[in-house]
Write a structure and sequence with these properties.
Layout lengths: L1 H7 L2 H13 L5 H18 L3 H12 L6 H13 L3 H12 L6 H18 L3 H8 L8 H15 L2 H13 L6 H16 L5 H14 L4 H14 L1 H14 L4 H13 L3 H14 L4 H15 L8 H7 L8 H6 L14
Helix pairs in contact: 1-2, 2-3, 3-4, 3-5, 4-5, 5-6, 6-7, 7-8, 8-9, 9-10, 10-11, 11-12, 12-13, 13-14, 14-15, 15-16, 16-17
Length: 338
């Protein structure tokens, strides 16, 4: 009967009938909840009477609420009557239940976080709520929102913790999503959180996901310079494949190779810097010293196998650049090696 009255637009009659159902002693709880939901819907949306709609919400609270369906019904009514505090409390009860499946929990966690942020103005609570999302299909949007809130409120630590926790749990992300999150957490750790050593693993993963990312490689090379010079050499060589005329990488390579006691490699890099016209006074001086020592021992052309020993970098793409500079090489390399 109430359904027909609703279809006809007889709102007064429909509400009266629905109240009778809700107050009927023999009616099942599910039926009572449905009736009260429609009372709230009609009062709030059709008659514009929020007070009466809230009366229905209060009555709904007295109906048995031991199952998640009851709480979900109550949340729907509280949303209709715009009772934000009570709605937040009800949503919290839903997400805390052990018998709620993860997709449903994630959905309601996102709803609760939006309510906390916008209606209640509690960004910190919203971030904590977003950090509880575990369902893979909801996780990217939750983390993206969490990071945005961190940007707005300066709570960078909470954002980094949430992203790190997701990676530690082995949450599966699409490559583009993972790349975006890795970049953000690397920036946070390397910047405002002042934990650059913790950013290394994320920069390395960025370099794997996006091999042409020169910025990630350059930062890795800087971070590895003191602690792992051999790794830093690898990063600079990768940079030179991307940017063959990157003088700062040649300069860093020279220092790293000297750190590794590889004077032959350092000599070859110095020769490139001299050939490019970019050598410092110190680099040019030590190149000349090494060149003079080598010249005395060279008789004719240096065999290919010896050249490889003297200059392992010969196999690198950067030496394509040296082919273009070949007319000038005799000035900087000993006879035969050029």
């Amino acid at each position: 009967q109430a359904e027909l009255q609703r279809i006809e637009g007889s709102w007064d009659d429909a509400v009266a009938t629905l109240w009778k159902v809700a107050e009927h002693g023999d009616a099942e709880d599910t039926v009572k909840r449905e009736a009260l939901y429609f009372v709230a819907l009609i009062e709030s949306r059709k008659r514009g009477d929020l007070d009466r709609a809230r009366q229905a919400a209060r009555s709904l609270a007295s109906v048995q609420t031991s199952d998640p369906e009851a709480l979900i019904a109550r949340a729907s009514v509280l949303d209709l009557v715009e009772d934000d505090s009570a709605l937040a409390e009800t949503l919290s009860q839903i997400v805390d239940r052990e018998d709620v499946d993860e997709p449903t929990r994630a959905d309601y966690l996102l709803r609760l976080s939006r309510l906390q942020e916008t209606a209640l103005g509690d960004a910190e609570a919203a971030m904590k709520t977003l950090g509880r999302v575990r369902e893979t299909s909801f996780l990217p949007s939750a983390l993206t929102k969490l990071v945005a809130l961190a940007e707005e409120t300066g709570r960078h630590g909470a954002a980094a913790e949430a992203i790190e926790a997701a990676f530690e749990r082995g949450a599966g992300f699409e490559p583009a999503t993972e790349l975006s999150l890795r970049k953000r957490i690397a920036e946070l750790l390397d910047g405002p959180l002042e934990r650059p050593e913790a950013s290394v693993a994320h920069y390395e993963r960025i370099a794997e996901l996006e091999p042409g990312n020169a910025a990630a490689l350059a930062r890795l090379a800087d971070l590895r310079f003191a602690g792992d010079p051999a790794k830093a050499v690898e990063h600079h060589r990768a940079l030179l494949e991307l940017e063959p005329d990157r003088v700062q990488s040649f300069r860093a390579l020279r220092n790293l190779l000297l750190e590794l006691d590889d004077e032959d490699g350092a000599f070859c890099v110095e020769a490139v810097l001299v050939g490019l016209g970019s050598a410092t006074e110190e680099e040019a001086y030590f190149h000349a010293q090494r060149r003079n020592r080598l010249s005395a021992a060279v008789k004719g052309a240096v065999p290919k196998e010896d050249r490889v020993i003297l200059c392992p970098e010969l196999g690198e793409p950067i030496f394509a650049l040296l082919q273009e500079l070949s007319p000038f090489l005799p000035e900087v390399f000993p006879s035969g090696l050029a």
